[in-house]
Specification:
With 232 residues, the chain is mostly helical. Helix content is 56%, strand content 9%. The strands form 2 sheets. Strands 1-3-2 form a 3-stranded mixed β-sheet, with helices on one face. It has a two-stranded antiparallel sheet with strand order 4-5.
């Protein structure tokens, strides 16, 4: 256990241990991950690739829960109010949204702890918009002036991946123009979700400022977008 703790994350580890019953397990797939429910947290680690930085990443997921930041879960529950959004957005996409928004809040804290940026994500150095992605967006998103429902999941998931990419060396200026050109309303809905999350203060005790408002705003924008468009 001690191999995952050093001067960078020891305070965080001790603080979280006072709030959660944390169990460390061997990862079944050689990837670091965590699962939390109530005051219990399970962190899975790769003993063949011991990394304090990767372990700290998982601790920060638990840290967000300690701050009662449940935006991903709130979005999932809110979107289930709409049968249409359930049809368009898969469970995998909703998991991706929640995870990406967590990462958005975690990364600055992670950097402030002097952890290695390149170990924040397995695909940190990967440029996340390929030529094939561009072709899907241009040729398959709209069919005969109707939005292809299969591609809505792709559009939102890929756009969030670009907007939440922590690697500043990845320039998505042209890619983002493609997304906005294909569907400016959906682009704004997703972009506003990212900006509201980025600006949300997890340390605020303002009862009128809740992560639930971010989920509700995103839901409202999606409903307006659905009602405005023809989806085949």
């Amino acid at each position: 256990m001690n191999e995952f703790i050093d001067h960078r994350n020891s305070d965080l580890w001790n603080m979280l241990n006072n709030k959660f019953e944390i169990t460390i397990e061997k990862s079944p797939n050689q990837e670091y991950s965590c699962y939390t429910i109530n005051n219990t947290a399970i962190i899975r680690v790769d003993y063949n690739n011991v990394s304090v930085d990767s372990f700290t990443h998982e601790l920060l997921h638990v840290y967000l829960k300690s701050k009662e930041f449940y935006l991903g879960a709130s979005i999932k529950l809110t979107l289930k109010q709409s049968k249409i959004s359930q049809r368009l957005l898969t469970d995998d996409l909703l998991e991706h949204i929640g995870n990406s928004l967590d990462h958005l809040k975690m990364f600055e804290i992670y950097k402030s702890m002097d952890c290695k940026k390149e170990e924040f994500l397995l695909d940190y150095n990967l440029y996340k918009f390929s030529e094939q992605d561009s072709m899907i967006l241009k040729r398959q998103y709209r069919l005969r002036n109707k939005i292809n429902p299969i591609c809505v999941d792709f559009y939102i998931g890929k756009l969030i991946a670009l907007l939440c990419d922590p690697n500043d060396n990845n320039d998505y200026t042209e890619a983002l123009k493609e997304f906005e050109k294909q569907d400016s309303d959906l682009f704004k809905a997703v972009n506003n979700l990212i900006e509201e999350t980025r600006n949300y203060n997890i340390d605020s005790d303002d009862i009128f400022n809740s992560y639930r408002d971010i989920a509700s705003n995103f839901y409202s924008r999606l409903v307006k977008w659905i009602n405005k468009n023809k989806i085949s």
